[in-house]
């Protein structure tokens, strides 16, 4: 069997993916998460009277905390199954990526389970982000 024949065989065996439907679901759920963030921003600036920068920090913290709680209650995973990337792209997806492995390995204990596995997915992202920011900061200092 040639590569082309094998490719056609696999294409015939694999079920089709409803791409348009998946895109719409991701767009709607991701948009609703962003609308929630905007609503929280308005709440923090207009009602709580925080400065814009402080309100932005509070919105990020609220969305991360809400995502972590919903992940613990298995609600966020259900949303992710429904909406796919619509839940993974906003900051809430990052919180889910940290909490999910921690919950999965909690039976192994607090130190070797929850604490050690918490950053298996998000750890490289955090490490790269911190390293890149340090390198960028050093370059910026040297250029001045």
Tally of discrete structural domains? 1
**How many distinct helices?**
8
Helix-residue proportion: over 70%
Oligomeric state of shown chains: single chain
What's the gyration radius in Å? Answer: 20 Å
Q: Which segments are poorly predicted (pLDDT under 50) over 5 or more consecutive residues?
A: none
Shape: extended
**Beginning-to-end CA distance, first to last residue:** 62 Å
Could you give the count of β-strands? Answer: 0
The chain-level mean pLDDT equals 86
Percent of residues in beta strands? Answer: under 5%
Describe this structure in words.
The chain has helices at 3-13, 19-47, 52-72, 75-83, 85-88, 91-104, 110-117, 123-143. It is mainly α and 144 residues long. It has one domain. The longest helix is centred in the first third of the chain and has 29 residues, at 19-47. It starts with a helix and ends with a helix. The model has no long low-confidence stretch (mean pLDDT 86).
